[in-house]
Amino acid sequence: MKPLVRAVLYGDDEPGLDDPAELYHEASKLHPALAFRQASGLARLGVSEELQAAALHAQRRNSQLPFSPLGEPDHPACSLWTALDRRRSSRTFGDGVIEVAALATILDAAYGLRDGTRRTVPSGGALYPLELYVAARRVERIEAATYRYDPQRHGLELYTRGDPWPALTGACPLDGLVDGGAAAILVRAVFGRTRFKYGQRGYRFALLEAGHAMQNAVLAAAALQVPALPLGGYYDARVDELVGADGVEESVVYALVLGGR
Q1: What range does the domain containing 165 cover?
Q2: What is the pTM (predicted TM-score) of this model?
Q3: Would you state the pLDDT for residue 35?
Q4: Which stretches in the chain have pLDDT values below 50?
Q5: DSSP E strands: which ranges in the chain?
Q6: 56: which residues sit within 8 A by CB, 6+ positions away?
């Protein structure tokens, strides 16, 4: 990129030679000369029964916590192309309630279970590093609280009681961005689930997978005519605190605000 163009794009604070984004991108590239070192995780996985067992069960669960089954997803009579045409990022949510069936459908589309262990999205090595949390504010028959979505049981495991919306509102740099929302899906990445095998590249895979899951979710919302707003700009530490992520080994990398129909 020519210096003049960089100055126009970035202004006076253009990235320096040690720009973290550029360093990350370079560090996560694959190189033929480093193939042996970059494949060390694959070699460990091939000989470790413990790693193999962990890779097959990418799911936290606490059987002592209250659990709410979501019921069968509600598959609307809507073609893929109609959903693509309908999809819009909504900024007006009103004060409606989102039905449990609609939430169940969106969660299932985003990261639901298929064929016993597979999910609805492509995942590097089928390692599934994501966990979906639901910040429920006005969900039919569901207490206002924060929940963890369990794809294997297709339900919500209680994480913390209490209305999560004040915390979510306080995490948004733009005033009014989540006003009126009925629920939010928070996509938490557990980076170690991919990095143990793919190294720095595993971080890329987690982000790519979050994009796959979010696209599934917004298309399902469009098919159901549920207002939805993908949210990528928030104060990370505050959203991480909402789901108990440390912000280093695990972090919320994407969010989706849903309104009532």
Answers
A1: 17-61+68-258
A2: 0.89
A3: 63
A4: 1
A5: 67-69, 113-114, 118-119, 130-136, 145-150, 155-161, 183-190, 228-231, 250-258
A6: 117
